[in-house]
């Protein structure tokens, strides 16, 4: 899914929840004290989706416990969510929930989620609001250097020495398939996505792409199993390629 490993403790869980929500386009505050009709309450992660009108408010409780969450926690949190007037209350638990907790949350605006379930809830928004824009922004220079028709780049290549032109062609060949992959992802060519209609990741690419393309891409990239790792690895190769072209031509803004 988004992250390669589950959070190690409650701080990691809280931080990871806040990070994913923020990267998904929500306004986020951690450990926020809110005022309700019955007094104050401390919320692990407070998030507001301002892209909706009216805005949607999420209150999130992060439970990195060794035991499953009981119904008493759900009852208490449900009261806070109701008293504050939040749209949704999310309880993210590393050890699951007791049967009574599910009964207490039934037909309410409280969602009981494990770490995987939380990621699945926001993966599509994270993908659209974070992963694609990052690739779009950072891969654009490499796309310019490797696209089939770019008169500006070709004119600069003509001014290179014979050795420089050979290196230019070699770099274009080396980064061609990586650039095509970045272009497919950011432009959704042929509706290409790294998540399917069930919000499941198609990673690793070595298991989902046809063999010829897999063999032309970096091994660490096609073996990545989590979206964040995939993004980090892809961008590291993109930056390396951009740097190689810039060293050949000089900085080209």
Automatic annotation (TrEMBL):
Gene3D superfamilies: 3.40.1350.10. GO terms for molecular function: DNA binding; endonuclease activity. It comes from the Bacteria. Keywords: Endonuclease, Hydrolase, Nuclease. The keyword Protein transport does not apply. The keyword Nuclease applies. One of its GO terms (biological process) is DNA restriction-modification system. InterPro entries: Restrct_endonuc-II-like, Restrct_endonuc_IV_Mrr, tRNA_endonuc-like_dom_sf. Residues 9-121 form the Restriction endonuclease type IV Mrr domain. This is Restriction endonuclease. It comes from Desulfofundulus kuznetsovii (strain DSM 6115 / VKM B-1805 / 17). The lineage of its organism: Bacteria, Bacillati, Bacillota, Clostridia, Eubacteriales.
């Amino acid at each position: 899914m988004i992250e390669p490993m589950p959070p190690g403790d409650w701080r990691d869980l809280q931080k990871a929840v806040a990070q994913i929500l923020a990267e998904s386009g929500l306004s986020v505050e951690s450990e926020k004290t809110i005022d309700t009709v019955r007094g104050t309450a401390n919320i692990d992660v407070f998030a507001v989706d301002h892209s909706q009108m009216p805005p949607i408010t999420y209150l999130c409780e992060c439970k990195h416990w060794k035991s499953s969450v009981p119904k008493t926690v759900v009852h208490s949190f449900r009261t806070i969510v109701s008293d504050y007037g939040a749209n949704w209350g999310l309880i993210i638990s590393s050890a699951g929930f007791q049967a009574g907790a599910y009964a207490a949350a039934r037909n309410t605006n409280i969602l009981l989620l494990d770490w995987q379930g939380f990621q699945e809830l926001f993966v599509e928004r994270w993908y659209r609001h974070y992963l694609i824009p990052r690739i779009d922004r950072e891969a654009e220079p490499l796309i310019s250097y490797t696209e089939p028709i770019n008169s500006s780049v070709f004119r600069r290549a003509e001014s290179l020495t014979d050795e420089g032109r050979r290196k230019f062609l070699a770099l274009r060949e080396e980064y061609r398939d990586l650039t095509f992959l970045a272009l497919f992802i950011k432009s959704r060519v042929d509706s290409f996505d790294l998540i399917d209609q069930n919000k499941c990741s198609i990673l690793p690419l070595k298991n989902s792409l046809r063999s010829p393309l897999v063999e032309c891409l970096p091994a660490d990239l096609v073996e990545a199993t989590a979206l964040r790792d995939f993004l980090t690895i892809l961008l590291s190769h993109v930056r390396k390629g951009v740097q190689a072209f810039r060293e050949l031509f000089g900085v080209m803004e």
